[in-house]
């Protein structure tokens, strides 16, 4: 078993960081987030210049919904590697999750300034703007993301959801349906598709996709509320 082999390597040389990272990643796959976090913290303490370990530690805090610690960790990652897109994207996400939309928008704009061909910064900035109700700016950015990364589920879902919010249900359905075909196991995409069908009063399809979304993520509160309304 891989886990035993990595533990054996570490028993022989506790400084072997690749084995530590691999063991932590196994713990993550097993759902053992606490042991994984402890490994990442230990690696950050022993190898403060290891960007990957610091990013993984930040993600561990995200899993715990400890967004302040996540933000602090990702700030350290950005200071460590100012040109790192993953470090900046992680920092922006932690701001977003903690409800600090203004700071997340600043970071996404900085990424676009430094990496103007990186589609997912446009996509995430579009999402942040639609959350604030700035749908026209959001649509422009979402179209740019879709242009840079055509036929990608995340960008098509964002574009479709903005069309949905703007009342263009035809374009919403076209984009979100294609996103769901590209990634049928994404709970949010299935929920968005259900919302579009609900807008069209297609209740059977609405229920189908709400149930699918909840099977993937039983904690999706918006899907629960809409399904309850349809009973």
UniProtKB/TrEMBL annotation:
PROSITE patterns: TPR (PS50005)
SUPFAM superfamilies: TPR-like (SSF48452)
Transmembrane segment boundaries: none
Organism of provenance: marine sediment metagenome
UniProt protein name: Uncharacterized protein
SMART domains reported for this sequence: TPR
